Amino acid sequence: MPLALKDVLTARGMPTTCGSRILEGWYPPYDATVTARLRAADVVILGKANMDEFAMGSSTENSAYGATRNPWDLARIPGGSSGGSSAAVAAFEAPLAIGTDTGGSIRQPAAVCGLVGVKPTYGGVSRYGLVAFSSSLDQAGPLARTVTDAALLHAAIAGHDPLDSTSVDRPVPPVVEAAARREVPGMRIGVVRELSGEGYEPGVQARFDEAVALLAQLGAEIVEVSCPHFDYALAAYYLIAPSECSSNLARFDAMRYGLRIGDDGEAGAEEVMSRTRDVGFGPEVKRRIILGTYALSSGYYDAYYGQAQKVRTLISRDFSAAFERVDVLVSPTTPTVAFPIGAKVDDPIAMYLNDLCTIPANLAGVPAMSVPVGLSDGLPVGFQIMAPAFADDRLYQVGGALEAALDARRGHSLLAAAPAL
Amino acid sequence: MSTPATVLTTPAYDDAVARYEPVIGLETHVELGTASKMFCGCSTAFGATPNSQVCPVCLGLPGALPVINEAAIRFAVMIGLALNCQIASWCRFARKNYFYPDMPKNFQISQYDEPLCTNGWLAVEVEGEVHRVGITRVHLEEDTGKSLHVGGATGRIHGATHSLVDYNRAGIPLVEIVTEPDVRSPEVARAYVEELRELCRSLAVSDVRMEQGSLRCDANVSLRLRPAPGEPEAPFGTRSETKNLNSLRSVERAVRSEIIRQAALLDAGERVVQETRHFDEASGRTSSGRSKEEATDYRYFPEPDLAPLALSREYVEAVGASLPELPSQRRARLIAEHGFSGRDLVDMGNAGVLELVEQTIAAGATAAAARKWWLNELARRAADAGVTPAELAIQPVQVARVIELIAEGSLTDALARKVIDGVLAGEGGPDEVVAARGLAVVTDDSALSAAVDTAIAAAPDIADKVRSGKLNAVGPLVGAVMKAMKGQADAATVRSLLLERLGA
């Protein structure tokens, strides 16, 4: 089975660039655990998929190797940061892809390309060989055309890895069985009140509401749930992720591998480091390194990083409280459909708002899926399902049921409506 | 901008400490003797080809992740318990962020505000007086690589044309042991490091070889005026930190030199700058390094790649139960059981024979004889051969047998040395060597009588002198008899036989 691997996971024999100039020419001497498991399952790695530099972005415009386009409309973004992965699968260049998700980087590209994308429970899939953006949030997962395909890929890469101390030693949830069930009678589904309303495109909200109604018809019990601290998730995320990234990306210093600029025999190590990082990193990466460096600085730590960690705890408690009442939570995956290339590059805050719905699951470490639920103005809309930690199978049960009912109603899969490239 | 140079008068050390009280705190790094590194499986062996003991983890390659070495945790807990510390039931690693080419990730995995061990003490004895040094904390961290600066005259970075980095050391587990500012003299500072070294050695957690850098010490020194009688103590002064002292002697010398330097500054009304300093062995002086005022902000935060460490009480108790006898306990026992003096213990400890002496006593030798033979004869032979006494090809039980043979009169000290020669040469145990080399003291009276008669007959003039009462003149006759007996006679016995025969 061929697969496109996001260029943030190492694979022997291929360069790993993370979409950055700073890793130009670097061939990793080892396979990521995800890569090794794929190879062991006879998966053929077709190639490395483009991405926002070091997975920082929501549009795959922040790649040193050029922007990736959305197969549904070539003038639009394919989502990000796993935009190369989503575009490859939506364009039928690869049947499957691996993405990584730190704040929505699998689910948002899946949503805007009409695919199924899953961020597994934190600790469910090994991060060994995943070049870290934000260690406490990063998680690799599947991008596929159907819920069943995603489940099969999920099962192939998940499971405990002694090389990753944050990997959890417990059985992989029965995702393949759950995907095959295709029914939801008696399930309690919570609609997150905070993830709707102003800022959500009418077409997106309409597809979402229709999907919720469909789940009710299928026998699920629908309840509205409030998660009050989700309003602070974006702010907390943009302190925690940059803080960790400022430290994780410190190793790119021209000393051992990758790009080296300014080594003219006169310049000292510090100057070579500085010049290389100046040339090697793009503006978004620099913005986040500076932000994170500031947030961790002596005298600011408590006000920023410390405070963000408290918000993170409150968000986890929101999830825990909600999951006492419901089996899964649902929301739109993104507030909008794919936007035109270039539309938000000069407005970082507008770009960050893409991840409003997806970030809470990363902060709490819980699993989440985006499943396509139709079109708005001819562009795909994603439906997000979130489950308690290690109950990844519930995503597949609900997603599988929704996919089957929508395909039956439509008479074909959503991707069959995609314009031919 | 430069300030006008003040001419400082350097006070004598005794004079300086008469007026100022030194306040000293020590930070000691001990490389743990685990087989593999702190966060990966690479070997920790010293002296390998540069960059041959590395992997994606300790090179900090993109995507690689750390996994805690359980043995390093156990060793650190052992040190903590031996230093009377509390062991945290929950603690975390933290990242210390700064850029340096010998740091593969440009952060060091260390511990910050949640160390593994806190609040302990170590008792240190100097000239019969016991000083209790408070231990603030013991924490675990990874070592950095080692930079080699090439092209300059001094091997230092200043003047070098390029630098080479060996990452074999990167990721070797280190514990950092930080004292309270409890130490008040260079002698106690040295004794503390020495005691800590003995402690780590007895725990077998490190080879603690200062010259190889497996134990390194930083000394924080400040001075304050001694209070007049009845007045309260002055607050602590500004401290300097002298880094990387790599011998016990350097610890003492560097602290002493800092005391004199700071006293001169204070005498001249100048202030001591808070900074790191380097100690130069050749000059015996410290020189200014990086000023703390422009020091890096390390931006510590909890290491997200590692789960928090939660040691169960049972685990800590089990480690505690496994601790061997500690140096202080052992010293007390040896003094009580064998009547050694404190000086004896220091000498035997320094010579590396304490363990061997104990085993020799256990094999039946008297304490005094065991001490004498190991400390004098065998330690010297080990030094000559360039090995440690424990590496000599003679067992404590064999030394005990030699001592037994001397005690029963079968060997003289001179013969015993020959027996030891034989054992060391691989000729077998003491009894075999005695038999093979024919080294036993000859007790056969007829052979001895004949030799005595021959010697007297060969030197009639000496014999006459002795007969006339000059007893000291008998020496050459004793020598002649011993020579005839090939040394296998007891000189004292020979002397009395001669005197008897000459009627003196």
From TrEMBL, chain B:
PROSITE patterns: GATB
Enzyme kind, highest EC tier: ligase
Residue ranges constituting the Asn/Gln amidotransferase domain according to the UniProt record: 355-502
GO biological process, one term: glutaminyl-tRNAGln biosynthesis via transamidation
Keywords: ATP-binding, Ligase, Nucleotide-binding, Protein biosynthesis
A GO MF term: glutaminyl-tRNA synthase (glutamine-hydrolyzing) activity
Pfam families attached to this UniProt entry: GatB_N (PF02934), GatB_Yqey (PF02637)
Reactions it catalyzes: L-glutamyl-tRNA(Gln) + L-glutamine + ATP + H2O = L-glutaminyl-tRNA(Gln) + L-glutamate + ADP + phosphate + H(+); L-aspartyl-tRNA(Asn) + L-glutamine + ATP + H2O = L-asparaginyl-tRNA(Asn) + L-glutamate + ADP + phosphate + 2 H(+)
NCBIfam families linked to this entry: gatB, PRK05477.1-2, PRK05477.1-3, PRK05477.1-4
PANTHER family recorded: GLUTAMYL-TRNA GLN AMIDOTRANSFERASE SUBUNIT B MITOCHONDRIAL AND PROKARYOTIC PET112-RELATED, GLUTAMYL-TRNA(GLN) AMIDOTRANSFERASE SUBUNIT B, MITOCHONDRIAL
Entry function: Allows the formation of correctly charged Asn-tRNA(Asn) or Gln-tRNA(Gln) through the transamidation of misacylated Asp-tRNA(Asn) or Glu-tRNA(Gln) in organisms which lack either or both of asparaginyl-tRNA or glutaminyl-tRNA synthetases. The reaction takes place in the presence of glutamine and ATP through an activated phospho-Asp-tRNA(Asn) or phospho-Glu-tRNA(Gln).
Description of how the protein assembles with itself and partners: Heterotrimer of A, B and C subunits.
HAMAP family: GatB
Entry protein name: Aspartyl/glutamyl-tRNA(Asn/Gln) amidotransferase subunit B
Classification lineage: Bacteria, Bacillati, Actinomycetota, Actinomycetes, Frankiales
